[in-house]
Amino acid sequence: DFKFDQYLKIIFYKFLIIATLVLTFSYFFDPSKFLNLPRSHFFLWLLIMFLYPILSAFPQEIVYRSFFFKRYGNLFKNKKVLIFVNAFLFSFAHIIYLNPIVILFTFIGGLIMAESYSRHNSLIKVSIEHGLYGDIVFTSGLGAYFYHAQGLTFG
User: Fold this and answer.
1) Residue 82: count of CB within 10 angstroms of its CB
2) What is the pTM (predicted TM-score) of this model?
3) How far apart are CA 118 and CA 41, in angstroms?
4) CB 41 within 8 A of CB 143
5) How far apart are CA 58 and CA 94, in angstroms?
6) How far is CA 139 from the centre of its chain?
7) Cβ–Cβ < 8 Å for 142, 106
8) What is the separation, in whole angstroms, between the first and last Cα of the chain?
9) Choosing a second label site near 5 at 20 to 30 A (CA), which of 28, 62, 92, 117?
């Protein structure tokens, strides 16, 4: 029987790997934004660290994992196709930010979270993961790409 404390260990190790990759990418991709939020707006950063998992990650997981897997899971004979389609739709929902980095990160994150939900069938567990991954994205400096459209021009 798979226990919650075993799952927390898995999340911890996955988070260490993903955080290292996100922080490294952020540092080299846009050094001017690296750790900008915690350095420049510490209390806003703390607020985001607390509220993002509750007000953003959890509701997204209700729709993109819990609802999607329960409603559409039986349409897919192949679990890998289900996970891929779920990640694609999760990523596509972020197209409003008009940024390929956002699309790439949400697709990869969607794959990770869809696989996790598929394996454990737990809204709470996948929401914890989503919250942690989102928090590291905001901490790293890449969060700037996730809260407003980049390069949007009219005329």
Assistant:
1) 20
2) 0.91
3) 37
4) no
5) 16
6) 13
7) no
8) 59
9) 62
Q: Which amino acid is at 75?
A: L
108 token code pair? 């990869």
Encoding tokens for residue 29? Answer: 């991709």
Residue 41 phi/psi, 5-degree rounding, is -135, 65
CA–CA separation, 146 and 136 (whole Å): 12
Q: What is the pLDDT along the chain (155 residues), one digit of tens a residue?
A: 568 788 889 999 999 999 999 999 999 999 999 999 999 999 999 999 999 999 999 999 999 999 999 999 999 999 999 999 999 999 999 999 989 999 999 999 999 999 999 999 999 999 999 999 999 999 999 999 887 655 544 34
**CA distances to 6, 34, 66, 104 from 120, in Å:** 12, 33, 11, 24
